[in-house]
Amino acid sequence: MNVHMSNEVDALRLSETAAVAFADAVAFDSHGLVPVVAQQHDSGEVLMLAWMNREALIATLTGGRVTYWSRSRQAMWRKGDTSGHIQELVEARVDCDGDTLLLLIRQTGAACHTGARSCFYRRAGEAGPEPL
Question: Under which main EC class is this enzyme filed (predicted)?
C-alpha cells in the first residue's frame, strides 16, 4: 500500500509478506549485513552508503522511513529520528547478485552526519581529498 506524501511521490510501504519476499532475495554477508546506497529519487544524487540487516530492511519496506544498522553502535537507527533529516523510501532495488541495495529516497535536510547534503562532498585532488 502506498501512502501519498509531499512532492507528489508516494512513499513505498509494502505488506509484511511482500517485504519478507524481497528480503529473501538479498544475499546478506557473514555478519548479516548488506551495503545500501541511498540516492535522491528525483535528481539521481548519491547521498550516502550505509548498512542494513534483515530486520532494518523489512522495517524500511513496511514503514516507509529508512532504517539502517549502525556497525559502530551495533543497533538499528531510523534516519532522522534525532536530527530531523529523514529519508522516505520511494523505491527499493536489489542488484544482480543480490548483495547490494539501492534505495531511491526523498531526503529531508542533510544526509551526512557532518551536515553536508551528501556524504560524497570531497573528490580526489593532488593534495588528497578536496571539497567539491
Answer: hydrolase
Model confidence over 92-126: pLDDT tens digits? 999 999 999 999 999 999 999 999 999 999 999 99
Q: Which domain holds residue 76?
A: 3-109
Of the candidates 119, 108, 106, 113, the one whose C-alpha atom is nearest the C-alpha of residue 49 is 119
19: left (phi over 0), alpha (psi -120 to 50) or beta: alpha
Burial label, 1 (beta-carbon count in 10 A; 0-12, 13-18, 19+): exposed
Strand pairing class (101-107; 87-94): antiparallel
Residues placed in the known binding site: 95-97, 99, 112, 119
Which residue numbers belong to the known binding site for Mg(2+)? 95, 97, 99
Q: Give me 40's grid cell.
A: 535522491
Task: Please indicate, yes or no, if residue 70 is contained in any of the structural domains.
Answer: yes
How many structural domains comprise the chain? Answer: 1
Extract the annotated binding site for Zn(2+). 96, 112, 119
